[in-house]
User: Fold Lipoprotein from Lujinxingia vulgaris.
Amino acid sequence: MHPTLFLRLLALTTLLLVASGCGELLDALPGTSVSGTVYGESFSAVSSTAEVSSDGTYFLTFSDDASYSCTSTPPGNYLTVVVGQVTAAGTLSAAGNVSFNLVEDGTTFTESASAGSVTIDRLDAEFDQVIEGSINAVGPSSDVAGSFSTTICN
Assistant:
């Protein structure tokens, strides 16, 4: 098959899936659109992790550094938003459960959210290994909002 023909067929198939409402496979791809300000600096998450503690509680980390992962904490300067105490689908208060972090040369500065909420729409640790939801959290010099779909770390 000619490469150009293959690309056209692939594009047409994708368009048909989306237009027909049968794009669940496309919707299942992890994605995060959490953005705003952290410590007064512009923040847009380009990576996210969902880690589980020994008691079964999950914590989510959204970072503006693409090299942040389940197995790697990057050197240098970057921002993170951390959501803790996730145990099931539902809504959490951001106060007491969300922290905003500025990492500069290995030193972490943290402020806690004072208002807002985190909604967990889906926590699937059995099959798809994903946590999906949305966040709206405000702190003294931080304000982030958006939706997320984050793969659970193994």
